[in-house]
Design goal:
mainly beta, eleven-stranded antiparallel sheet, 3 helices
């Protein structure tokens, strides 16, 4: 079943040209999903108290139009494509009848005590499911050379209730590393999550650029050199005055 949640854009959520940042759009969409769980059950907190936690595998976020400070939007979300240990979820952000952004994400439910993944038929979610949006869940990353462009440490402000770097924090981390970010608008964001990062953990951000000048490939690596996430970000050049 589809679920809706209303939001008003705060001024603090907007960046240059008063555009709302991709991280904030992702936060609205995921907040709507958390509220569906809260209203229709079981809630995220109820799952957490039973020793379960949702972990994200992939996110594909496409942003069609800019969103501005103080605007009112409707976030829609619905569960879909549940199979084996994969929980799919679609998202849409609307300004009136205008579609601002769409996203599709795949999640897994982790049994924190055993470290195993929970099958979709082992937990009774009360809100049912619907057809997914036609957004790819698997990504193809261009083969480009990557260079280290920044180092970050996971801070208090970055983590969720599991003590891991919240997935909605990654877009800001990566957009900080896009050259001349104030001259472009981010139109697409695809993230494949390989491993979680804990509070206090250092990460190295690597970046590569495709020949079109509008596509950036990112990878974050842990101290031991293993991959934390891989991401693909597309941008659109802003018209000059």
């Amino acid at each position: 079943m589809r679920y809706e949640r209303q939001f008003e854009v705060f001024s603090v959520d907007a960046g240059h040209n008063s555009y709302v940042r991709p991280a904030v759009i992702l936060r609205y969409l995921q907040e709507a999903a958390v509220h569906q769980m809260l209203d229709e059950g079981p809630s995220y907190r109820q799952l957490f108290e039973k020793g379960y936690a949702f972990v994200v595998s992939r996110i594909n976020l496409q942003m069609y139009r800019p969103l501005y400070e103080y605007e009112h939007v409707t976030a829609q979300t619905w569960a879909c494509a549940e199979k084996g240990v994969t929980f799919g979820r679609s998202y849409r952000l609307l300004r009136g009848d205008e579609v601002i952004a769409e996203a599709f994400a795949t999640w897994a439910l982790l049994d924190m005590k055993s470290g195993t993944l929970v099958r979709t038929d082992e937990v009774d979610f009360h809100y049912g499911s619907d057809e997914p949006l036609p957004l790819p869940a698997r990504f193809v990353f261009p083969r480009v050379p990557l260079i280290a462009v920044a180092q970050r440490q996971v801070q208090y402000e970055d983590v969720d209730c599991n003590g891991h770097l919240n997935n909605a924090r990654y877009p800001d981390w990566l957009c900080n590393c896009i050259p001349d970010i104030d001259e472009v608008r981010v139109t697409g964001l695809q993230i494949h999550f390989a491993a979680e990062a804990r509070l206090g953990e250092p990460l190295t951000i690597l970046r590569g650029e495709a020949d079109d000048g509008q596509t950036y490939v990112f990878e974050t690596r842990r101290a031991d050199g293993t991959c934390n996430i891989r991401a693909l970000i597309t941008v659109q050049k802003e018209p000059t005055a």
